[in-house]
Amino acid sequence: MEKIRQAFLSSNSSIDFIEYCSCPYIILPCSQDTQTSDLDCYIDVFYIKKGVAELMFNAPPSIKLSPGEFIFLNRKCSDCFFLTGGQDTEILQTRVVPRGLYKDLIVYYGCYNSLYVLDSG
């Protein structure tokens, strides 16, 4: 997680917070009052530190996540995101606000994909 943090900081991004995420972590679709541009301003990064987590994004089936895996979420208004785990599961969450070229790349690629999962390999 520290290497990812340093990479984002060196790209002139800002990090809103880094904290442990309590399960279940649920994001429901936005209300009609939410501006789409508000969601384009940040990326949620989740790191599975310990235990096994289960992720369901927009529709079943769910996928199992192992320690060392990352989830990058560039949320859209219509997205549903469910992240659960057992009592021993530890998940770190950070919210990154990209700037410059990184923001352009995230917004461009985010038009097609809202979710990326990086495995430990």
From TrEMBL:
This is AraC family transcriptional regulator.
